[in-house]
């Protein structure tokens, strides 16, 4: 009998242990989403694609970070100083930060040399870093990148001791601190980097972690899982234990239904079904607006077309080099109609007449977009039927015998975005109706959901394209630079008739003059002149700011770290999974409270 009693006690003990383990697992905080756009690399020193560095931002920390109001906070650097003209910056590192492998084993301590090795990689031209242009702010960085200098020790970064890193810059850069929120200034363990070579960042095993999370699974087109890093220096502020991304090529379409079934914790709600959600009492309580951000959206006109002959790239090149033709498109685009595909209730609130969004930076309380050169553009609507038709007639007259009408206008879109697909259809019909199908033939073409940036935009396989840009630091140059000669966009420097005596374009000379100016008021005025020139010449058609649309989500956006630039907004640190999603009324109330608190926090930060 004692034998059976002993067995019974053991069985009960095992069951209790099992129950205890189950209970522990249930308490684990998990956040689950579906996605369709796959990442191709974890190499944060190389990529500039948002969905790629968004993952890396949770795996690797930088020198600084931001709190939920956008006030800079210590990150891997516990303190810092700069000299009077902001050309030399010194950072003291924490001494408790570890690099760990994919299985959580300690690999090495974080040291100052890791930042030197990271910048060395970015500035080495053979590595083809997409963010190198930002890193050339460091002294001799551009010379090293161009091969004019081969001794990296002469580049303006050095480890003065094990836990101190010093940057020397090409010119006074008072906004340098904000630049450190971007991936090109992140550290890397040099020994590990050499060991892995070209394999670095290709798998979770070929990667080192010092951030809030470790990549537990990385199975492209299946699943990726982030788990809390048990060695992280700031563990108490990592409130979500596990983040799961499940691949689904129809993610944008199926996510709303998956959310209603409790299978995912967040889903964008497309415009096509938003009325249905707001008219259903149960669904209405689960959907809210998204918070506007500082991504700027615009339509880029390509001056270096590389698309197939069937779309007549040479004819497009002739047309796009005619200012009247560009202005006819500029004034023909009805941005409100286009924005209705995302924001059906208040589309005007999302529009932006300038490349640089409102409320980004100011001079003595005057918003940058309201400075004299930009104010007329900011205060008017580019859509104007009469002007569009007037420029159409001018273009037809000046292009007679040179271009063939209708001009084929190839306008691809990312097939992973239903709203984008709808928007291209709206724009095609709206512009052709206004300007006439005998003038332009807008050709809508579905592009890939994965690799759209590298397969379509960067190779120039478009005539007209919706594009976007996010700021990397707190200065107007972050928005004007992408269109410069070293930028990544539509090559306006190739437009005919804009070269000046020094061999540079008018726009480039305006940019160079602004960048060389230290006085903030004068500097901002010069950048405003450059941006207004870019827009007035219709090299680009400003469209909207980011963050528009609606979402059902169990995350509170006002708990997240906040910054208009860099990778901060991609971090899960500080956030927690709510028991139920936030309604739109709750969102508006929380937004008003947050905006008031943020204004106070920013004032206090300058004292």
TrEMBL record:
<feature type="signal peptide">
    <location>
        <begin position="1"/>
        <end position="18"/>
    </location>
</feature>
<dbReference type="Pfam" id="PF00496">
    <property type="entry name" value="SBP_bac_5"/>
</dbReference>
<keyword id="KW-0813">Transport</keyword>
<keyword id="KW-0732">Signal</keyword>
<dbReference type="InterPro" id="IPR039424">
    <property type="entry name" value="SBP_5"/>
</dbReference>
<protein>
    <submittedName>
        <fullName>Oligopeptide transport system substrate-binding protein</fullName>
    </submittedName>
</protein>
<feature type="domain" description="Solute-binding protein family 5">
    <location>
        <begin position="72"/>
        <end position="487"/>
    </location>
</feature>
<dbReference type="InterPro" id="IPR023765">
    <property type="entry name" value="SBP_5_CS"/>
</dbReference>
<dbReference type="InterPro" id="IPR000914">
    <property type="entry name" value="SBP_5_dom"/>
</dbReference>
<comment type="similarity">
    <text>Belongs to the bacterial solute-binding protein 5 family.</text>
</comment>
<dbReference type="InterPro" id="IPR030678">
    <property type="entry name" value="Peptide/Ni-bd"/>
</dbReference>
